[in-house]
């Protein structure tokens, strides 16, 4: 038996557009097999790790005409897909050809390059397709010595459910079952496994699987980064000369994003989803930890394979009969420091796991061998029967029967593959016809492609627009229509066209009058949504910028049109003045507050981020890195925020306080804190350093927004702002709100000379500890309820006052005691002095 450690590779990808736009710094460096990570907040703090392979795919590459990424110079340090395949893929292939099970896992946060490494994009084929190509070419090369059979399957684990990505039937609502058999271990019951003979067939199946995944994701409104994808290749090699068979399972796993799973999103299902995915990924982490402990000789009682679907299916890959490789993918950017560090720690533990891989021999093949051997013996016996001249008819008959039976059995075992293959080929032909048809249609007709946040699932579904008239618009049920939901864009588009020439004219006037002001049309709220996640009403606005001082205003359509008239007036006066005395410089001087090109500067809404409140209904804390989206969808900043359920004194609740059923909160007091920690990569400040920001938010029924203090001149300002909210008697409407809404965090831009935003506390109910009371009964509630609530508030306050009071009382008492003691000692002194001859009736001794 062999002991093999899990081999671990790390790979760092190039900056993506978002990171580049945010001016990110690369905090990873690699020297040979060691990788060093720098803490962006404390550059002296560096942590180094060693792995079996390290891949620098961050820089030093070019893109050839086919779109393939290659090292800039031959022998450069950039690790392309081929390099990664040579190290990891070929090893896996070799192992499986030798009859070992092999597993490849991709681990890392969403967007770090798992799918790129595993599957690849376009010309940059990943490990899986390359592995298949090489596998089939190696099968062809060795055709003389062995016959090979390859079975392919592809599944997804989403929310602890197994979805067969190759299934032709309707989706099983509860997912497929995972079962256990003594010899086989865990397996998915009813999973479709398709026999394949070429790499093209496998590629087609993968395409089909991805398509199913896309539709499933759309259908379930699912976030693909939370699902695990598992591709299995079963390789069976039959060496007829040696009459042995080797079996191996190749598992290729694209894991869910490793970032701490968050319950963000508006559907009620999200929370469960977050927790369930956590289950598979956290269990994987626990299994890895336990196995790492085993490897260093610690006593481990239990390895929790059975606690999640993923670990059940990967049991043999982890600490069992498999040669396993993990590729941990990393983002190079400073803002991903925490995630990257946690990925590296995870990978470090995985490195220690020891497997015991053995070459697999199949029982069915052994059976064939045994049957053949038995038949040979039978034939011998039969022939001997003839030679001896004896004719025991019965025995001959019996032996012949046995022989035919055995032969039939051998045939049955061997034809299974041929039959399967025929069926699969028919299937593939059908599918191929479908794909060819689609390709032809793509050349002939315009079509609409789906976009998905996961690059892997984008552009999979095609909607063809064929001859005839097609209506594109808001939900319409005419047969040839493409319905677009949610966008009230048409009216805006019309305004846009109308205002365009006016903006051009305004710009010309500004230039001629040396105003140094630039006008630009924008669509307000194009990318923004309200606290329920619904699109906000779109509108046209004009962004006005002073070219020199970079001051910015947003003007409504009406204001712009009005100002444009005034500008024209000014312009005409200027023209007239110029023709009168054409010699001197004659820009008409206006008082500032008369100047249509000018306005006092004000804070500007830069964008919003949504912090979903659902976890609060379960008393679960939430920590998020939120993307602040600008009106037109640009990333304005990353905002780190937390929601912390707490006690009335502000102590964070523990895990024991997590609720299974949110309705337990009804009529009870609920306390929580909103923490705004830091803003990172502020575009607003990067563009001009003399600017600042504030974050504003409105919670539930608060009528006025609250604002953080202003943070000036800093691209990554610490906000460190904490607000304690309490609902004294949680109502159903607050519960509904928590479960379906987000608090919209508004990022406001401050500019030189503008007043900062102030929280107006007038209409707000605050306790004397500055706890903001929410969930105040509206006028719709009965007077009785409102009285009750008032009473509760009163009692709550009184309770606190009483506590304060008792504290003060205690202080008073102890002070009193001290005073008494002083008096006592004094009177003792007096007594003793009287006993020295003074008159006891006169308490104040009179000197002389
Ligand atoms: P994940 O599957 O981890 O969520 P992806 O593999 O989809 O992430 O990668 C996100 C994006 O980064 C993709 O657009 C991909 O093309 C790009 N990317 C990832 N790794 C690399 C790499 N090594 N070289 C170039 N681009 C990469
Ligand atoms: Mg992916």
TrEMBL record:
Superkingdom of the organism of origin: Eukaryota
Residue intervals of the Kinesin motor domain: 5-353
GO biological process: microtubule-based movement
Any one Gene Ontology molecular-function term assigned to this protein's record: microtubule motor activity
SUPFAM superfamilies the UniProt entry points to: P-loop containing nucleoside triphosphate hydrolases
Pfam families hit by this protein: KIF1B (PF12423), Kinesin (PF00225)
Coiled coil: 418-445
Keywords, alphabetical: ATP-binding, Coiled coil, Motor protein, Nucleotide-binding
Binding residue positions for ATP: 108-115
InterPro entries: Kinesin-like_KIF1-typ, Kinesin_motor_dom, Kinesin_motor_dom_sf, P-loop_NTPase
Family statement: Belongs to the TRAFAC class myosin-kinesin ATPase superfamily. Kinesin family.
Protein name per its UniProtKB record: Kinesin motor domain-containing protein
Species in which this protein is naturally found: Knipowitschia caucasica (Caucasian dwarf goby)
């Amino acid at each position: 038996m062999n002991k093999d450690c899990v081999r671990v590779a790390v790979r760092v990808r190039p900056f993506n557009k978002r990171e580049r736009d945010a001016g990110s710094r690369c905090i990873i460096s690699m020297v040979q097999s060691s990788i060093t990570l720098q803490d962006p907040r404390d550059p002296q703090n560096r942590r180094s790790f060693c792995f079996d392979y390290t891949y620098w795919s961050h820089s030093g590459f070019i893109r050839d005409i086919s779109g393939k990424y290659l090292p800039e110079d031959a022998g450069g340090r950039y690790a392309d897909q081929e390099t990664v395949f040579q190290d990891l893929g070929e090893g896996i292939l070799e192992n499986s050809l030798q009859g070992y099970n092999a597993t490849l896992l991709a681990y890392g946060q969403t967007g770090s390059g798992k799918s790129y490494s595993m599957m690849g994009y376009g010309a940059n084929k990943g490990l899986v397709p390359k592995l298949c190509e090489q596998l089939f070419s190696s099968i062809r090369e060795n055709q003389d010595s062995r016959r090979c059979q390859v079975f392919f399957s592809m599944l997804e684990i989403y929310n602890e459910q197994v979805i067969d990505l190759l299934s032709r039937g309707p989706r099983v609502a509860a997912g497929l079952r995972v079962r256990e058999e003594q010899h086989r271990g865990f397996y998915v019951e009813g999973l479709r496994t398709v026999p394949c003979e070429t790499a093209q067939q496998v590629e087609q199946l993968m395409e089909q699987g991805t398509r199913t995944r896309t539709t499933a994701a759309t259908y379930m409104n699912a976030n693909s980064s939370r699902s695990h994808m598992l591709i299995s290749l079963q390789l069976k090699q039959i060496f007829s000369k040696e009459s042995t068979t080797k079996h191996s399972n190749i598992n290729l796993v694209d894991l869910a994003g490793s970032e701490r799973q968050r319950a963000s999103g508006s559907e009620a299902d999200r929370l469960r989803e977050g927790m369930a995915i956590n289950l598979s990924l956290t269990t994987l982490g626990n299994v890895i930890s336990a196995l790492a402990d085993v490897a260093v000789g610690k006593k481990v009682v239990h390895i929790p394979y059975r606690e999640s679907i993923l670990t059940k299916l990967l049991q043999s890959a982890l600490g069992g009969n498999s040669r396993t490789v993990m590729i941990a993918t990393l983002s190079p950017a400073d803002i991903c420091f925490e995630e990257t560090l946690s990925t590296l720690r995870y990978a470090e533990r995985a490195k220690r796991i020891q497997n015991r891989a053995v070459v697999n021999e199949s029982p069915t093949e052994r059976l064939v061998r045994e049957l053949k051997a038995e038949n040979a013996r039978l034939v011998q016996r039969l022939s001997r029967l003839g030679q001896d001249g004896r004719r025991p008819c019965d025995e001959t008959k019996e032996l012949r029967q046995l022989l035919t039976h055995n032969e039939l059995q051998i045939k049955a075992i061997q034809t299974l593959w041929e039959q399967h293959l025929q069926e699969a080929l028919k299937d593939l032909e059908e599918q191929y016809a479908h794909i060819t048809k689609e390709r032809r249609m793509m050349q002939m007709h315009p079509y609409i492609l789906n976009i998905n946040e996961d690059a892997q699932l984008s552009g999979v579904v095609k909607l063809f627009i064929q001859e005839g008239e097609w209506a594109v618009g808001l939900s319409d049920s005419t047969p040839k229509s493409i319905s677009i939901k949610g966008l009230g864009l048409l009216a805006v588009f019309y305004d846009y066209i109308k205002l365009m020439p006016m903006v051009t004219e305004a710009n010309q006037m500004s230039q001629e009058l040396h105003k140094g002001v630039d006008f630009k049309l924008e669509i307000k709220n194009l990318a923004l949504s309200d606290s329920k996640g619904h699109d906000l009403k779109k509108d046209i606005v004009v962004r006005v910028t002073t070219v020199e001082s970079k001051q910015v205003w947003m003007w409504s359509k009406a204001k712009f049109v009005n100002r444009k008239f005034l500008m024209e007036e000014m312009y005409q006066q200027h023209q007239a003045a110029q023709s009168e005395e054409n010699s001197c410089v004659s820009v008409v001087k206006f008082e500032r507050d008369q100047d249509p090109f000018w306005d006092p500067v004000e804070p500007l809404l830069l964008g919003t981020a949504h912090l979903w409140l659902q976890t609060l209904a379960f008393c679960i804390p939430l920590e998020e890195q939120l993307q602040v989206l600008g009106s037109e969808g640009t990333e304005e900043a990353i905002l780190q925020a937390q929601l912390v359920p707490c006690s009335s004194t502000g102590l964070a609740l523990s895990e024991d306080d997590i609720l299974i059923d949110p309705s337990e909160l009804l009529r009870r007091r609920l306390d929580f804190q909103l923490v705004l920690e830091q803003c990172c990569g502020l575009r607003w400040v990067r563009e001009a350093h003399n600017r600042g920001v504030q974050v504003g938010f409105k919670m539930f029924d608060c009528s006025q927004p609250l604002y953080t203090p202003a943070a000036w001149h800093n691209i990554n300002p610490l906000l460190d702002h904490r607000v304690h909210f309490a609902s004294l008697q949680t109502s159903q409407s607050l519960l509904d709100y928590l479960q379906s809404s987000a608090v919209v965090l508004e990022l406001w831009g401050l500019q030189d000379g503008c007043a900062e935003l102030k929280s107006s506390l007038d209409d707000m109910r605050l306790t004397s500890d500055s706890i903001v009371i929410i969930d105040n009964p509206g006028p719709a509630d009965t007077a009785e309820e409102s009285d009750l609530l008032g009473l509760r508030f009163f009692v709550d306050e009184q309770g606190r006052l009483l506590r304060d009071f008792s504290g003060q009382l205690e202080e008073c008492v102890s002070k009193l005691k001290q005073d008494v003691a002083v008096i006592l000692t004094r009177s003792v002194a007096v007594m003793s002095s009287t006993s020295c001859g003074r008159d006891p009736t006169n308490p104040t001794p009179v000197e002389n």
